[in-house]
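SEVERITY: medium
COMPONENT: batch folding queue
REPORTER: lab tech (J.R.)

DESCRIPTION
The queue accepted two submissions in a row. Attaching both inputs and their returned C-alpha cells so the on-call engineer can compare them side by side.

ATTACHMENT 1
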Amino acid sequence: MGKAITIAVDAMGGDDAPKVVLEGVAQALAQDADLRIILTGSAASVEPFAQLYPDNIVAVATSEVIGMDEHPAMAVKKKKDSSIVVGCQAVRNGQAEGFFSAGSTGACMAAATLYMGRIKGIFRPAIASILPAPLHPVILVDVGANADVKPEYLVQFAQMANVYAQHILRVPNPRIGLLNIGEEPTKGSELAQKAYELLDAEVTGFCGNVEGTDILGGDFDIIVTDGFTGNVALKTIEGAASMLFGQLKEVLTASLVRKLGASLVMPGLKELKKSMSADEVGGAPLLGVKGSCIIGHGSSNATAIANGIAVTADCARERVPQILAEEVSKVALSADQH
C-alpha cells in the first residue's frame, strides 16, 4: 500500500446497511494497514464500531439517510446532514481523499458533483461500470449519469475511462469502442455517427464500433455510450447472468444422477461465477469530479464493500482525479493552439 490515505464511507448505504458496511470496513482495514476511514451514519451505528478501531476510524454521526426511492437532487439539497452529503463534504473540506457508498446512485452522483465539484473542463461526470468479463474487465461508460448526451460528451467519457483503465486496471494501451448497432462507421443514429468521427479523430486507442453481442467478447477494454443505453445494457447483462446461473443450478440438481455429475464440475462453476461477480470489482467510479468517488451496488455484500473501499483508496493514491484534470487541460490547450 505504502501511503496513508483517508476515505469517507457511508455506513447507511445499501440494502443490508449498516451491518454489511461495517463488516466490509473491517475487511478493508485488515487488508490495508495505511487506510483511515471517516465513517458517516447514525450515532448508534458508527460510534460503537469506531471505538473498536481508535487509530483507523473517525465516526461522524449524521441524523439523516437518503433512501433509494427519493429524488436524488432534491434529497441531497434537503438532507444536508445525510450520510452521503456529509461524506462528500469531507472530501471537499480536505478531510478525506475519496468517498465510497453503496447507497442511492443518483444521490451519490448529485452530492459528489455539488460538494466535491466537477473538474474544470469536464462537460458531465460519468459513471463507469467495470464488467467482470471472462477474459478481462471491461469498462462500460456511461451507465446512468447522462441519459441525453452530445458527441463531445462521449469523447470525454472515453478519455476519462482511458485514464482509469491505465492507472487502476493497469491496462497499458486500452482498446476503446463505441457501442452501436453495427461495426461500420455509417451505422447508428446521428449521435453515434458524429461521435464516431470525433472519437476517431481525438481519442488514442479508439478501434471503432462494438455491437451488443461483443461487449464481453474481449476485443475492447472500454466501451463508450450514453447513460440510458449503457444502463439498459448493464442491467440486461446482470439479469441474464443471474438467470443463467439460476437455471444451471436447477438443471444440475434436478436428479440424483445429475447431482453426482454436478459435484465434479461444481468447483469450476464456482470459480467461473466468482470471476464474473460484480463483488470482485467493488463498485462503479464516478469520473469527472474532483475527488475519488466509487458507488457500490445496493446489494453489495461485505466483500464488495471492502473491495469498493480499496478501489476508492487506489484512485486517491494514483491521483486519478488530478490526472483527469491534467488531461483535460492538455486537450483544452491543444484546442486553443489550433
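ATTACHMENT 2
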Amino acid sequence: MRTTPIRYVLPLLLVLAACGGPSNRYQGMDAPALFAMAQQEANEGEHDNAIRTLDRLLLAHGDWSGVPDARLLLAEMYTEKDEHLTAAAEYRRFLDRYPGHPRAAEAALGRCRAFSELAPRPERDQSYTQQALVECGNTAADFAGLPEAAEAAELATEMRETLAEKDFLNGQFYLRRNLHDSAIKYFEFVIQRYPDSEFAPRALLGVYRANMAIGYEDLAEEARDRLLARYPDSEAAAEIGTSADQG
C-alpha cells in the first residue's frame, strides 16, 4: 500500500481544518453565547468575524429576545467597515420590525449617519445627500428632545449646506459662461430652498450681477435690496458696492 508523503499531509490537514472550522466554531452555542462572542469580536476589531457570528445567531435563533440588540450590533459592524449602504439597510430593518423599541432613536440616527457618510462633494450627484437630509430630518422630528435628534438636526444642517453649495456652484458655472437666465435660476434655488445657508447672500449677489450683465437694472436693484435687507452683515452685502461700480 502506498503512503502519502509527509510533506503533503500537513497542508491537507490545514485545508480540512479551515473548511470545517466555521461550521464547528458555533457548535453547541446558544443565542446568549453567540451574542457574547460577537460582542467580544467587535470589541477586538474583528468586524468580519462578528458579522459571521451575528448572521449565525439571527439564522439559528430568530425568536431570541435579544435579537434587536443583535441586529443593531450587526448594523454597527457594517458601519465600522464603511459599508454604509448595508448598514443603512440593517438600521431600516430594525426600525421596520421594532418601531417602538427603546433603541429606535439610535437606529434612526444610525441611518441618518450612514447616508451622511455617503454624501459626496458638492460637485457630484447629490442623491445620497438628499436621502441623508430626509433621514436626518425625520430623526430630528420623530425623536425631538433626545440627544439623537440633536445630532440628526446638526447633520441635516450640514446636508442643506452641501445642497445649497451645489446649486450655487451651478449658478456660478452658468454665470461664467454668460448664460445668465440659467445662472439666475440656480441662484434663486439657493435663495428659496436654503435661505439660512451661507450661500444664500452670495446667491443674491449672483442674481444682482447676472441681471446687471443683461441690462435688467430694475431686477438687479431688487436683488440688491433683498440682499441688504436680509443679510446686511454678510460679505456679499459688503461687496455689493464694488459690484455696482463694476456693473
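NOTES FROM REPORTER
Residues 66-161 form a domain with the Serine Threonine Protein Phosphatase 5, Tetratricopeptide repeat fold (CATH 1.25.40.10).
No errors were logged for either attachment.
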